[in-house]
Amino acid sequence: MSPFKGQTGLKRILNASGYSLDGLRAAFTGEAAFRQLVLLNVVLIPLTFFLNVSRVEQAVLIAVCLLALIVELLNSAVEAAIDRISLELHPLSKNAKDMGSAAQFVALSMIGLVWAVILL
């Protein structure tokens, strides 16, 4: 067992919740792209309640919006880790950051595609 592991049981869940809230706060205050995606979600998710779609379709429309937030959190985490390691320009650092950006591009494309398929 790792000496770096924390508490167990309810204490672990409470600690993890605090870390998660800290991460959301850091993303919201420090990442413009995350704030833009939150705004997009604030518009699109309530919109699903006014669309003439089934509950399953509504769930899919909401899920793809939330997925873009998840991808942005992971992309921001990769960028922060790369910057923590070194700010020097390196091809592997560029590749890691570019792949994170590509993942976000795919997630945003998926929002457009899924919404188009369901609504058109």
Helix content: over 70%
Low-confidence stretches: none
Pairing-aware structural class of the strands and helices? mainly alpha
Question: Biggest β-sheet, characterized?
Answer: none
The total count of strands amounts to 0
The CATH topology assignment is: Helix Hairpins
Please identify the top-level CATH class: Mainly Alpha
- Count of alpha/pi helices: 4
Indicate the mean pLDDT: 95
Number of structurally distinct domains: 1
The CATH architecture can be given as Orthogonal Bundle
What report would you give on this structure?
The longest helix has 31 residues, at 55-85. It is globular and about 50 Å long. The protein has 120 residues and is mostly helical. It has a single domain (32-119), classed as Helix Hairpins (Orthogonal Bundle). Helix 1 (9-30) packs across helix 2 and helix 2 (32-47) packs antiparallel against helix 3 (55-85). The protein has four helices and no strands.
Which key terms come to mind for this protein?
about 120 residues; mainly alpha; Helix Hairpins; about 80% helix; globular; DAGK; lipid metabolism
Record the SSE blueprint.
Elements: H1 9-30, H2 32-47, H3 55-85, H4 91-119
How is this structure best summarized?
The chain is mostly helical. Helix content is 82%, strand content 0%.
